[in-house]
Amino acid sequence: MADEAELNLVGGLPDNSPEAEKLITFTTHGSPFRVLETICKANSLTLVHDNQSWYIRPFDERDFIGKSYLYTEISAENLETVIHDLKSLLNIDKKPDVPGEPSIVQHQDSSALYITVPQTQHSWVKGYLEALSRSKAP
Q1: Sequence-ordered list of residues with C-beta below 8 angstroms from that of 131, at least 6 positions apart, any chain
Q2: Closest Cα partner for 126 from 134, 29, 137, 48?
Q3: For residues 72 and 82, what is the distance between their CA atoms, to the nearest angstrom?
């Protein structure tokens, strides 16, 4: 299925993990990526993208996941406001980034924000940025 979705799926779960003992059987039609994602969610697993490869890991809401969000549609004047709003939304203090803590890092050379928060909060970020984009649409 990973081949059909053109995913570079490096590995599944460690052999000694309880999740690796589950046998999953299904019949479905749809995007191979969406099917893998749905199976993972239904079994408390998650697909993690890291360094151009995908991994299946046990889902733990406490784990921080880093994702890049392009901000090409956000003007330079509004970027600081957007970062402030996101920090407020995600309850990120204004203190300097601390390893193992939620963070927002601005990568000016690639016009991206690298945000490290739990998976659920990434849906908040996505929703905020989509709403911001819709508000600027003609």
Answers
A1: none
A2: 134
A3: 13
pTM exceeds 0.70 for this model: no
| Residue type at 19 in one-letter notation | E
Strand 45-50 vs strand 112-118: parallel, antiparallel, or unpaired? unpaired
The CA distance from 132 to 22, in Å, is: 41
Three-state DSSP class for residue 66:
strand
pLDDT tens string 61-116: 777 888 888 887 788 888 999 999 999 999 887 666 666 688 898 887 778 898 98
Write the DSSP assignment of 9-65 as a string of letters. Answer: EEE---TTSGGGG--------S-HHHHHHHHHHHTTEEEEEETTEEEEEE--TTSEE
